[in-house]
Protein: shikimate kinase
Amino acid sequence: MASSKLIQRPKGLTPASRNVQAHAALLRPVISRQAPFTAASWNKSHATSTPDRLWGRRAELSRSVQVCGAEVDDGRTPGHPYPWEEDYDLLSDKVKEVTDELSKDLRGCNIWLVGMMGSGKSTVGKMLANTLKYAFFDTDSVIELAHDKKPVSQIFAEEGQDYFRNCESQIIKELSPYRNLVIATGGGAVLRPENWGYMHIGIVCWLNGDIDLLARRVARDGIEKRPLLAADAPEGADVHVVAREKLGSLLEQRRRYYENADVVVTLEGYGKDMENGAPTPAVMYRLLTAVNDKVQAKKREQAERMNFRIEGAEQLRNMRTLESPAAAAAAAAQGEGEGPQPPSP
Structure:
């Protein structure tokens, strides 16, 4: 009995069982995308305590967990022109939004990816196909499979560039009649006019990257995988320098062909992505947005063409139908040629 008196709460205090939610709220951190929150170290000056005299010998100091905004570096770039590119949750929402709108109007139209080596056509294409629920084809990979999985560099060395381009054109021709495809083409596929004839049945997207960015990517992967770069490369030369010089020369030859694409998607990165270029999900969102803008503009153009009015249409009700002069002349000539008909018996 004595001990029970010591732990009795004074009148006016709310039992803890009635205030569970209030206590839980103190311990539950607030989630925010802009400023993540953490539990800070306990500060006695802000603590909520119950005087010892109210709790007797078993009284304890009640500590509250203080939740405050943490001053931490979350890896985001201040002043980023496209902040959602560094927030994948927000980027995912924006991708879903544009995909829902685009899917209704795309109607299975194929998407062809063109661009220089190192622009990420295959990587972006796979993610794009998965997002749109399309099938994905890489023309280089198809050629390799058709040649017992020989790498492109070996096919170039054994058969020559013309043979490779012929195989590439044949694949583009065979894929063009199908629907719901994303096709990543080789960097030189744009050089042949017949390829454009097949690709323009769908939507052609140019992944346009800066030469320095493309050279860094290609050098990192190794130029030996790129027969056009590895050919005649000086032994012991700086890989990045070789890649940059040859890519610059190739781009000069191909730029006017790439500019025939329906949409252009930049690979430029910002903030922490400045050196390596925009991440793949960000490039895919840029591509989806550009394609959607193109499709919606086409819809508006078609709607404007259908919005016409025939001047004087109200007078058509009172106009008489006249016999064609040419038909009357033809009938008269036919009657004269037959001559008089004998009387019937």
Notes: The domain at 83-304 is CATH 3.40.50.300 (Rossmann fold). The two ends are 144 Å apart (CA to CA). The chain has a mean pLDDT of 78. The chain has two domains: 24-74, 83-304.
